[in-house]
Design brief:
about 220 residues, three-stranded antiparallel sheet, 6 helices, about 30% strand, rod-shaped
């Protein structure tokens, strides 16, 4: 390679490297935050600010962006507990929630991105245990709205301290031990049989009263004749 070719090669190499560096700088100087999200800006690992939706500028190679969803999300959790009368209970609870938009920096700093596994799931477990301990197994069935309201109020208190807003709670399912289910089935059958017997007795009484009334009417007709 001649000196002129060498100089030309060095010149083009510098241009290519400079172009790549410029591209990296320009590409890394902005970030798009989609609708329904917030961007937590980290400058050299420390939280600096929060980006709103749309195009935002940042310092390339110095700042990074963690995007968090602040729209309503759903988490469904299975929980095991014991009722007031010590019956084993398995529950499936669905939680609708959203991250507080103005608190995403606090959430990222104190909890990080694993808030479902670290905060939400354990909170649901504890709320279900607290609720079932206040009701008997029968009441968990007959007073289901009250149980749901208790779980919701408990989760509101627990999660609001962790920058998470609860919007709705629903009990998808309650399940009990096989022996308790059989006892409930037997109780329902007995109640149905008792109701059927009562209805049959009422029918017999009604028919007897009809026959008595008819006999009285016939006797009165004979007397008149």
């Amino acid at each position: 390679m001649t000196p002129e070719e060498k100089q030309q090669f060095i010149k083009w190499t510098k241009r290519i490297v400079g172009g790549l560096f410029l591209f990296i700088v320009l590409w890394g100087s902005w970030s798009i935050v989609p609708a329904g999200k917030r961007g937590v800006v980290l400058r050299l690992g420390a939280i600096n600010r929060v980006m709103g939706e749309g195009i935002n500028f940042k310092i390339p190679l110095v700042e990074s962006v963690q995007k968090l969803d602040v729209r309503t999300q759903k988490e469904e959790v299975e929980a095991s507990a014991a009722s007031k009368d010590l019956q084993n209970v398995s529950a499936v609870v669905a939680l609708n929630y959203n991250l507080m938009p103005d608190k995403v920096a606090n959430l990222w700093q104190q909890i990080g991105g694993e808030y479902k596994a670290r905060i939400i799931d354990p909170a649901i477990q504890e709320s279900v245990k607290a609720a079932t301990a206040r009701f008997t197994a029968d009441e968990l069935i007959t007073k289901r709205p009250e149980v749901r309201d208790f779980i919701k109020a408990d989760l509101l208190q627990r999660l609001s301290q962790e920058f998470i807003q609860v919007t709705e709670v629903s009990i998808v399912n309650f399940d009990f031990s096989e022996s308790f289910n059989k006892a409930i089935e037997a109780k329902v059958t007995a109640e149905q049989d008792a109701l059927a017997s009562k209805n049959k007795l009422e029918q017999v009484k009604f028919e007897a009263e009809q026959r008595i009334t008819q006999a009285k009417a016939e006797a009165e007709a004979i007397r008149i004749q």
